[in-house]
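Lecture 7 notes: from sequence to structure.
We start with the chain below.
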Amino acid sequence: MVLCVLAPHPPLLIPEIGKGDIGAVKATQKAMGELACRVNQAKPDVVIVISPHAPLFRDAIAILVDDPLYGDFSAFGVPEAKYRFRNDPELVSAIVDEGGKIGVRIHRFELESGGLVTRSKGLDHGVLVPMHFISKEVGQGVPIVVMGTALLPRDALFSFGQAIEMAARRLERRAVLVASGDLSHRLTRQAPAGYSPRGREFDERLIQHLRDTDIQGILSLDDSLLDEAGECGYRPVVTALGAMSGKDLRSEVLSYEGPFGVGYGCALFGPETGFGKNCDFGRCRSPEASSAENCDSSRCRSGESFPVKLARAAVEAYVKSGKRINPPEDIPREFQGRAGVFCTLKTGGELRGCIGTIEPTTDSITQEIIGNAIAAATQDPRFRPVREDELGSLRYSVDVLMQSEPVSGLDELNPKIYGVIVRKGRRRGLLLPDIEGVDTPLEQVAIARRKAGIGPNEDIELERFEVKRHT
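Predicted structure tokens for the same chain:
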């Protein structure tokens, strides 16, 4: 086993399905491109997918024997999105054999004759969504092996992962294992499975354990937390960890977000040799393009404004030494007051982190910039912390927020000029102005609602504000 990945599977990641909602999961979509590129770099002979939406049994694991395997997104209104993959019957038989040796029952399942009533014929979206991205990189000629999970104790699922590894090793297959699964389905009161405050706790703990490569921490999460979280990704992850047992593991979280009350996490874990190089979210750039994006050049830095130079200095000092810089003594007059500030980091034109404050939380704009720049680089839950080797490629922008004012309706908003704040009681969501892909007030307010966990039919208070954007 050369690499394991955690891949979410919301169908809205597919542009034809997500449509207007795709902007809310842009971080996940880009991370899936990165994940797929890393899978391709691992040069797999076969991709093994564990889907929680495959046939599920209490005491046995279903493994699909159909060859070829096929599916489409007709259940989500896009029947023309069709997929066809070769199976690997020899590896299927080896996995069944190795599973039997450790006492795990494996049911050979045929989608055509299994008698299972599903939302669509063929492969489920737990397989199709990750493979939509992966097959773009590795091609559809690489075979896949598809299996479900089971309501077995976690030690049995872990042992089954070891059996998968034994089968792949026996046949000398370079295998990549995809643990398909979303995290908590209960992050907000509008979440599809209802709300539980422990949903956020589960997601935060699992993502942090993955960042820390804390395998024991993942395996020891208590059952009550799993039940409250309403997740569908934990069992596939446990099996994947079993497949990697005995190896010197490294892990990397590519992204995490939960815009619709469901947590989406993208991560890699495996031996160091299986990780490959950063793909800039799946898009290989030419040396010329990389050079143009490199902000370590004197040409780029010479044009930076005062707040951007301060944000860059704060991030670089913190990432290199862990120390927080002090504000400079010579501060331009316009930055001597107090205001809310948002700091945004990008690399290769894609978001790398964004953290801000709606209202001032410190004594000065300069302190606000320093704190939020460091937070954008190291605490944005959608991304792993910025590494020192990334510093030269980062571009910064700093938005200083003007005083907000209430508005009575969408006709007073302009997403190119005004940011928006939506409020419902203590819930509050903000969206900055002039964001790529947000073209109408309706889209702007809808995204701000989702960020605040406010339902589309709930009454809200609206405010607008302008920003001074510094680059």
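Points to note: The first helix runs from residue 15 to 18. Residues 114-120, 281-300 have pLDDT under 50 and may be disordered.
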